[in-house]
Amino acid sequence: MALLNFRRKESPANTPTAEVEALLRDYSIEVMPRTAEKVEDFTALLPAETRVYVAHIEGTPIEDMVATAKRLNADGYKVMPHFPARIIKDRATLANWIAMYQGEADVKQALLLAGGVTTPHGDFSDSMQLMETGLFDAAGFERLHVAGHPEGNRDIDATGTAGVDAALKWKNDFQTRTDAKMAIATQFAFDAKPIIAWADSLREAGITLPVHIGIAGPAKLQTLIKFAIACGVGPSLKVLQKRAMDVTKLLLPYEPTDVINELALHKAANPDFNISHVHFFPLGGIKTNANWAIENGGSSAVPANTSV
């Protein structure tokens, strides 16, 4: 596949700052088979070699997941499918999924997570058990990402963060005793201040895994509030609730400009800040999110054949 030629978007009104461009460089984005089907041409939206996570929702056939990964790989993207522990029946099923992804889509990266279901479908209940099988290492996977929760996870800790903190410490130790290349990909949040405080607390606890911070892409306010509640987003939900009370903003789509700007400025002022990348959840649609990234300096480039 020929690589696209890229040019900077000429739009003084939307000229991104150098700090924002740096934070958005090599951003990643998440898709599902049913949302990917709506995109006619990913190469008109995403820069070459963008990391694309393929989210595995309960009930999605593995064949659909692999087909989506195969398409994205053929388009030149780094594909990272989800492996949700609680919906994987047993070791044999996990080995089969890995073989299918590698055989048909040349997958070498994975996001390992517990998954959203309450009761495990089989032998696995958390991502640590998936890592301990050794199957990803045996299959030559080059990178493993794990989940992070800047505002806690009520499925693990009804109060506080002791459970998620202990899990991240275990995963950090796993990296130090293996040759795995790892990072933390987080749930989305809407307020930079708690994100910064959480990231700093990881470093203080000796957790050195780089953080790919989850950010909700542009979407209708009502859509974001619905997803935020369903996903257990914590105190930063107040950012949306406050916006909903402002009638001048109620009908306008939410954009992550403020949180991205604040994180970018903080990273520029603190070079050792452990948030290394942005990971987008395109809750308002893949095209909408990708175009927002282009307009705001994502990878500092825009596809030459794209009208934005």
Give the secondary structure arrangement, pairings included.
Elements: E1 6-7, H1 18-24, E2 28-31, H2 33-36, E3 51-54, H3 62-74, E4 78-84, H4 91-105, E5 109-113, H5 127-132, H6 135-138, E6 143-148, H7 162-177, E7 181-188, H8 192-204, E8 211-216, H9 221-230, H10 237-244, H11 257-269, E9 275-281, H12 286-295, E10 302-303
Parallel strand pairs: 2-3, 2-9, 3-4, 4-5, 5-6, 6-7, 7-8, 8-9
Antiparallel strand pairs: 1-10
Helix pairs in contact: 1-11, 3-4, 9-10
Question: Can you tell me about this structure?
Answer:
One of its GO terms (molecular function) is oxidoreductase activity. Keywords: Oxidoreductase. This is Methylenetetrahydrofolate reductase. InterPro entries: FAD-linked_oxidoreductase-like. It comes from Sulfitobacter geojensis. With 308 residues, the chain is α/β, with parallel strands linked by helices. It has one domain: TIM Barrel (Alpha-Beta Barrel). Helix content is 39%, strand content 17%. The chain contains 12 helices and 10 strands. The chain has helices at residues 18-24, 33-36, 62-74, 91-105, 127-132, 135-138, 162-177, 192-204, 221-230, 237-244, 257-269, 286-295; strands at residues 6-7, 28-31, 51-54, 78-84, 109-113, 143-148, 181-188, 211-216, 275-281, 302-303. Strands 2-3-4-5-6-7-8-9 form an 8-stranded parallel barrel. Strands 1-10 form a two-stranded antiparallel ribbon. Strand 4 (78-84), helix 4 and strand 5 (109-113) form a beta-alpha-beta unit. The longest helix has 16 residues, at 162-177. It is globular. The model is unreliable at 1-13 and 300-308 (pLDDT under 50).
